Every structure is written in C-alpha cells, then in structure tokens.
Amino acid sequence: MKKFILVMLCVAFSVSHAYAQVLSDGRYVITSRHSELVLDVEDNSLENGANIQQWGYAANANQHFDLVSRGSGYYSIISVSSGKAVDVYNMSQDAGGEIRQWEYWGGDGQLWKLSTSDNEYFTITSKLNGLNLDVWQWSTAPGGDIRQWTATGAANQQFSFEKITADACEGLASGGLYKITNYSSKKSLDIASYSNSNGANLLQWNETGGANQQFYLEQLSGTDRWVIKASHSGLVLEVADASSSNGANIQQWAYTEGAHQQWRLQQSAEFDGAYAIISVGSGKALTVAGSDAGDNIYQNSDAANSSQRWYITALDSSCSGSSGGSRSNNYSAGVNGFAAQYGADGLSTTTGGGNNTAVQVSSCSQLQSLVQNSSAKVIQLPNSTLDCRTAARTQAVCKLPCGSGYTKPLYRIPTSSQSCVDLGGSNSDLINLTRNESTLSVGSNTTIIGSGSASKVIGASFDLSGSSNVILKNFTIADVNPALIEAGDAISLDNSSHIWIDHMRMTRISDGLLDSYDSANVTISWSHFDGINTDLCWGTDPYVSMLKNTQATFHHNFFDSGYGRNPKILGSSSRVHLYNNYWKDIYYFSMSVSDSARAKVEGNYYQDANRPHWNEGGYIDADVSSNRYTGKSTSSSQDDSGSSSWDVGMYSYSLDNVDKLPSTIPAGVGPN
Fold first, then answer.
1. Cα-Cα end-to-end distance for the chain
2. Are the beta carbons of 271 and 303 closer than 8 angstroms?
3. ∠ CA(16), CA(21), CA(25), 5° rounding?
4. Alpha carbon 188 to chain centroid distance?
5. Which distant-in-sequence residues (6+ apart) come within 8 Å of 405 by Cβ?
6. In sequence order, which residues have a C-beta less than 8 Å from that of residue 66 and are 6 or more positions away?
7. In 526-611, where do the E strands start and end?
8. H or E stretch including 661?
9. Which run of H or of E encompasses 370?
10. How do 65-71 and 582-586 pair as beta strands?
11. What is the SS3 assignment for 441?
12. DSSP letters for 116-161
C-alpha cells in the first residue's frame, strides 16, 4: 500500500494540515484515507475527458490541485498540470458515474462541497447530484478509479488535504537541509537536549521544528556516501566507537572522515520510497528502538523493518544544495537486490550517471552519440517516441511452418551452422526480407531515464556488453524487427555488471526481451515483459529472456503472454533470485534452470502459466507455500530442490502479500 510522502523527494515545500470546516484557497495534494494513494490525472494528460484515478505520490503536477472557493461553501478543484477541473463526466446522476477532468465552465458538475470527517478527513460532495467522490470498489492499487457514489461516510470516501506552499522536485541534493522521520513512528531524529557536545545521543522525538532536528546531507564527491550533519551543532552522525556490532549507539561527533561517520541512503520501493540509512563502516541500518518520543537510535542488521526506514524531507527554500548550482535527480534511489551489492568490478552498488544533470535528447542520433562513452552521464528521453529504425536492409531468412493449425509462416534467421532444414523447413532455400533495427552501444556509468509514461524507443537494441554501472529506467523498448526471429534483442548484457533495469516495458521484439551472458550484480524490477506479438504466427514472442552464467534479482515484474524463457536460466555460475513476480498466460514454460544453474523462487503468482518453475538439470529453491498457482499452473511443473540448493548469502528484502500481486503488479510496472 502506498503512503502519502512529502519526503524522500527533495521537496522544496512545506505542508500544513487543513482541518477546518472550510479550507483556504490554495494548492493541495488530496489523499484517500482508505488506500493512502493520491488523486492523480491519468498519464499526466492535458486533454478534456482524462480520467481521475489514484496513484502513489510522486510530487508531479498532475497530483497537485488548486482549490478555489466559488461561494456558498462550494469549491472547484483544478489540476495544476492541465488547468482543467475535476468534473462529473457527462453530468451523470448515477452512482458509479465517472469522474474526469474538463475545461472549467462553472457548472454544478464542477463544484464540490467539503465536509469534515474525524476533524482530519473530508468528504467531497458534488453540487450536481449530492454523490460523494469514492475510491471505486475499495481499490488499494495504483490506477484505481475515482468515481461518484451514494454517501456512506466510509474510508474510501474520505480524503485528506495537504497544502503545498511551493513547488516540489525529486532527489536528494548534496548540501540541502532536511528533517528525517521514521516510517513507522512518524517521529523525527533529534539530538538529545539540543546538545553541542561530542557524544550527544541521537534519539527520536515529536517534531518541534528545532535546529536539533534538522540535518545537512553532504554527498562525498564521486561516491554514493553521505555525511549527515546536525544543523545546530555542525557535528555529524556516527556509530559510537566505530563499532560493527548490532545495538551500537548512534551519536554526534566532529567529522574525522571515518567510515563510521558515512552513510549510504538507499531508497526502498517496498516502503513507499522511504530510505534505509546504512553505515558505510558496519553495513548496518539506522534503527529506532520503539515508537515513543525519546526512544533510542542504534544500528542493527537491516531486516527491512519499518523501524529501519526513514522519510527524508527537504527544508530548503530551493532544490539546490547550500553551495548553489542546479539540482540534479538521484535516479539510483531505490536500487536493491544484487545490483545494490558489492561486486567483482569493485563497485558497492549501482549509481549509473549519479547526480549529474540530465541531458535531454530529442532524436535517436543524439541518443546514440551520447550513450557510447563511459563518462558519468544522465540522459533523459522525451515523453514521446524516438524512432531508431534505419533504412531497410536485406536479410536472408528461412521460411518455416509455424506448426499444426497455423497457416501463417514463420521467418527465422539461421546461424552460420544452421540450414533451413535444421530449423524445420522443407528445404534449405533462403528468401530475402528486410530488417531495420539499430544498435545502441551503452557505455559504463550511464543512466537513461524516460520522462513519462509515453517515453518509448522503437527499433533499437540496447547493447550493454562489457559495461558496468548502468541504469535503464522508465521507458518502453518496442518494435525491433517484430516479424522476424533472431533479429535483435531489446536489451543485451554480456560481461556486464552492476546493471539496474527498472520500470521498463519490452514488447514486439525479434529475439530476447532481455538476454544476459556472464554478467553479475543485475537487478530487474517493476518491468513489463510483454509477450504479445501479432506479427508472429503464434501471436506471442517465443524467446522472452535467457540468462547464462548470470547473477540477477527479478522482483515485481510482469511476465505477460509469453511463450517460453520467462526466463530460461543456465550455466553453473548462474544465481537468480525471483520474488514477488507475476506470470500470466504463459504457453510453454515460465522459468527453468538447466546446466547446473541455481534459482531461488518465492512469493510469486502464477496464473495460467505453464511450468511455473521447471528443473531441466539445475537447482531450484522454491518456497512453494509462499507462491500462488492458479488455472493450469496448478497441474504443471512446480519443481523444488529444497532450501539447501541455494548457496548465496542474501541481501535484505521483504515479500509483499502474494495474493495482491495480480492487481498491484500490472498497475505498477513499466514507465510512469
């Protein structure tokens, strides 16, 4: 469940609760009491008729609304991003009528009365029909609909209004001033007794706004390490006596450049973007002892508990650090799994282009020229399509039968050692077709980030061979020779390391959506492996993903309508952890291991997915009781070699409620 966060997002605004009967005019975030998600204009649309939905808070303008009093106790609610009003669509009088945005014209369908509930939450009632805004069908998923319904006073009809007094931006800025609040207790880090002395204790306390609850965050140049300096004393947070033991106290001290005074700030998607604050010296997490004011702060092994996660809220009047300069986003925030672990390449985590200012591209040629070198860089794609297809090039292919019941042929490129007969053809004759993909060779220390849900690159294969420290995030890769087989991957790894692939969508790809060889420290999260491809005779991509001698984490991904290799894991060096993924309508097999590969499989949902975890000659530690199997998945391969078959020490992670994955995963994967 997403929580409303005015936090972790370098927020250059303050929040004031408005609990009075009538709210003052101003700019607000509107949060459902039931789901703790915020009102959102779908896809950041500017168009009349765009849907009003709920979504996790991202500090975007399509989640901010201007409340304007129109007299007689009624308000208009105007989207900041589009300038359009929250509107009863088509002037509906029906319970269940849709709520959209529309150009403001002052009609009763655009006027709303706010009434208090519990002196903290408000019902929002239409002047047109007396119906309340309602989280439709009690949804808790991002993308859940907002509609109108008969007044019930239930939590799905109650909303809080948080007033924004300035604009917001993402990321943590080096030199910025912040407060740090525990995810669970909602209390602030506090230097005891406002002390200026070395050794003064760190504890949690009710928020006072005092300088002993304010901290400067200073990132060490060229690293992922931060120093946390108390505003009132100028002393930094440290682990007492440089201890590596669980339970060691946290205090303030003059900075001596010790690793026990340096911290890694790792954003956690599982905790709504709150951060784990990890000591560089000990590798242990900042932890609070309880929920009361005055409870102690100490270090402990990170168990991904709420007592170990912290909202970080900016207190500056601007998003830039105190030393000036432009603000840059931290697109590596939230990396986890193997990509966040120390590797043989000498890196301790994956940062991509780091906090460098993003370079926006508007053409494929510009993108291709920028990604090649290994200097640290952040490249931002537009919220539209970049076409990377080349002029058509001749390609000799085999024309093959698709199989019983199919009249449409299959066109496949043979390897140098194959003939068309080897591939099932009636003869060895080749025919000439065309291909048009381009290859983008991505250098090390690169972040490529889409700027919105419509960010898409068509006709490009992203080749990360030999590269390390790369982040691909928030865009779609599509249409790589979709009518051919073996004519280009979406993403290729070969001898690659520290790679994070997050919130991506791959669809209509000739070969692998993601193929990886001899690679390590790879994490794939919140991505959509879309197997539907009507250009092929089967209507689905046959080769979704193959991993050979690769160390990878897959979590919160959607494997959708693929044929096989979702993924196929082989090679004795492969160690692949798959948790909280969702497989749906998989025709041949979901995932498999062979050639002594090892996999750990837990907390996944399989819906009509053949061979959920299939052992063809490897090892699978499958916590079968933690997985869910429905439809044809219940009678297919659920192979389990036992927990002793997994031989890798694990990082910190937590499992979501598996029964909610069919709703939360499709709504959350891919670019947003």
1. 17
2. no
3. 55
4. 26
5. none
6. 25, 26, 27, 28, 77, 78, 80
7. 528-530, 545-555, 558-560, 568-570, 575-579, 582-586, 591-594, 598-602, 605-609
8. helix 661-668
9. helix 364-371
10. unpaired
11. strand
12. EETTTEEEEEETTTSPEEEEGGG--STT-BEEEE-----GGG-EEE
DSSP secondary structure, 206-268, as one string: -----GGG-EEEEEPTTSS-EEEEETTT--EEEEGGG--STT-BEEEE-----GGG-EEEEE-
pTM for this structure? Answer: 0.56
Looking at residue 379, its pLDDT comes to: 93
Q: Is 456 exposed, middle or buried (0-12, 13-18, 19+ CB in 10 A)?
A: buried
The two beta strands, 598-602 and 619-622, are parallel
Contacts of 222 (CB under 8 A, 6+ apart): none
Closest CA to 282 of 249, 308, 245: 245
659 contacts: CB under 8 Å, gap ≥ 6:
605, 628
Burial of 654 (0-12, 13-18, 19+ CB in 10 A): middle
Say if residues 296 and 282 touch (Cβ distance below 8 Å). no
- DSSP letter, residue 662: H
Whole-number pLDDT of residue 222: 66
Which stretches of 433-500 are DSSP H helices? Answer: none
Q: pLDDT by residue (tens digit) across 49-82?
A: 999 999 887 667 788 898 888 888 899 999 877 7
- 211 exposure class (CB count in 10 Å sphere: 0-12, 13-18, 19+): middle
Q: How confident is the model at residue 170 (pLDDT cuts 50, 70, 90)?
A: very low
pLDDT one-digit tens code per residue, 630-661: 999 998 889 999 999 999 988 888 888 999 99
Map 68-92 to HEC letters: EEEECCEEEEEECCCCCEEEEHHHC
Q: Do 579 and 604 contact (CB within 8 A), yes or no?
A: yes
Q: Kindly state the tokens that stand for 307.
A: 């007592």
> What's the pLDDT band for 117 if we cut at 50, 70, 90?
low
Q: Tell me whether residue 163 is exposed, middle or buried, using C-beta atoms within 10 angstroms of its C-beta: 0 to 12, 13 to 18, 19 or more.
A: middle
Tokens at 207, concatenated: 């928020």
369 φ, ψ (degrees, to nearest 5): -75, -30
Strand partners for 463: 441, 492
Which domains does the chain possess? 15-164 (2.80.10.50), 176-327 (2.80.10.50), 391-435 (no CATH)
Interatomic CA distance for residues 615 and 611, integer angstroms: 9
Indicate the pairing of strand 393-400 with strand 410-412.
Answer: antiparallel
**pLDDT tens digits along 131-152:** 999 999 999 888 899 999 999 9
Alpha-carbon span 11 to 315, nearest angstrom: 7
Structure tokens at 531: 């197997």
Average pLDDT over residues 105-133: 90
Cis peptide, bond prior to residue 567, ω within 30 of zero: yes
Tokens of 45: 């649309």
Q: Are 141 and 156 in contact (CB under 8 A)?
A: no
- Quick one: average pLDDT of 103-118? 88
Distance CA 582, CA 215 (A): 40
d(CA 62, CA 53): 11
Structure tokens at 150: 């008969």
Phi, psi of 41 (to 5 degrees): -85, 120
Pairwise CA distance, residues 134 & 155, whole Å = 9
**Looking at this protein, which amino acid is placed at residue 27?**
R
| CA-to-CA separations, 547 to 113, 272, 442, 570, 598, in angstroms, rounded | 56, 30, 19, 6, 11
**CA dihedral angle for residue 473, residue 478, residue 481, residue 482, rounded to 10 degrees:** 130
Query: Residue 615's beta-bridge partner residues?
Result: 593
* Contact by Cβ (8 Å): 480, 509: yes
